Amino acid sequence: MSELLRDLLAANATHADEYRDRFDDVQESQAPDAVTICCSDSRVLQDQIWGNEEPGRLFTCGNIGNRVVQRTAAGTAVSGDVLYPIEHTGTELAIVVGHTGCGAVTATYDDLTDGLDEPAGIEHCIGLLKDTLAPGVAALPTDVGRASAINRLVEYNVDRQVEFLRESDDVPDDVAVVGVVYDFQDVYSERRGEVQVINVDGETDVPALREANPEIKDRISRLWTY
Predict the structure, then answer these.
(1) CB under 8 Å to 38, separation ≥6 — which residues?
(2) Do residues 35 and 159 lie in contact, with contact meaning Cβ atoms separated by under 8 Å?
(3) pLDDT digits (tens, 9 = 90+) for 115-144
């Protein structure tokens, strides 16, 4: 057995001790307050970014590129893991969580501009982003460097995932959909790990968002208006 696995199991034992009584109210069912769709990047601490230590509070989905879509026999649809809490547990808030320096967005950008040769599984995931990001790549300013281009496309991708959720007939109109970017690269501020709100129910204009949400106006920011 590897030393790393032993260390992980020891940490889990501590977790089990700390959480012994925290599952009492959710052992038989769940009613999460929000579903979050995060990138599965190892730097995105999916529950900890919200300070969440409460089992049952967040329904957390993760995949490369924080995608809300999947391909089905009937065509492109809202991913089942995203839709499940909305359909079956009454969850009324969906949060799409992009992040600075996203590898999936970078790979999609590279594939669109130069082409990539990836294993089939990765190619499939990138393929779910290519059509979405292609117009964003075409619209990029010509005077931005590679890193800045990627972080603008991170916002563009979050916007498109929010848009897909809002336009889907499977997502009720009373479900609020918010897009955010998790920043650990000092792109928006020097507070590494801080979330910036960039989209609320399809609204992306920063002054309008700040006026409509004055209580969080210092957390609303964007790099790009396109």
Answers:
(1) 44, 46, 60, 61, 62, 66, 97, 99, 182
(2) no
(3) 888 999 999 999 999 999 999 999 999 999
Question: Is 15 annotated among the ligand-binding residues?
Answer: no
Mean pLDDT, residues 63-91:
96
pLDDT digits (tens, 9 = 90+) for 144-176: 999 999 999 999 999 999 999 999 999 999 999
- Which amino acid makes up residue 111? D
Average pLDDT of the chain is 96
In terms of residues, how long is the chain? Answer: 226
Question: What CA–CA distance (Å, rounded) separates 123 from 108?
Answer: 9
Q: What radius of gyration do the chain's Cα atoms show?
A: 18
Complete domains list, the chain, with CATH:
29-219 (3.40.1050.10)
Distance from C-alpha of 181 to C-alpha of 138, rounded to nearest angstrom? 22
Cα separation values, 4 from 7, 11, 13, 39, Å: 5, 11, 14, 24
- Type of residue found at 214: P
**Is 125 assigned to a binding site?**
no
Tokens 């609320």 found at: 200
Binding site annotation covers 102?
yes
Q: What is the pTM of this model?
A: 0.96
